[in-house]
Amino acid sequence: MVFLVLLVALAGVAKGDFPLDLDCAHPAAAKEFIGRVRLSEIEWAEDVQREALWQAFGRCAEQPGADACRKSAEERFAADWARQKAAIEAKYQQMEKDFEERCQASIA
What we know:
84% of the residues lie in helices and 0% in strands. It has 3 helices and no strands.
C-alpha cells in the first residue's frame, strides 16, 4: 500500500501535475514523505538510465571498436545521470524549503 501511494505521488510530482499535500501539523512526517518520494524518483530515474545504457552497450557490440564505443557511452550516460540526479535533488530540496516557508507563514 505504501508503495502504491509513493508510486502515485511520484508520478504526479514528476510530471508536475500536483504538489504533495503536506501537513504543517506533522512536519517530521511530511519531510519523511518528501524524502521517500525523492528516493523513489531517483531510483526510478536510475533504472531508466541504466536500461538506456545497456541498450547503448548492445548497439556498441555490433560495431568495430566496441570497447571505445562502450567507454564513450558510459561517460556520456554518467554525465547525463549526474545532471539528472542533481535536478531531482534540487527539486525536492526546493519542495522541502517551500513547505517549511509555508508552515512558518501559517504560524505568523
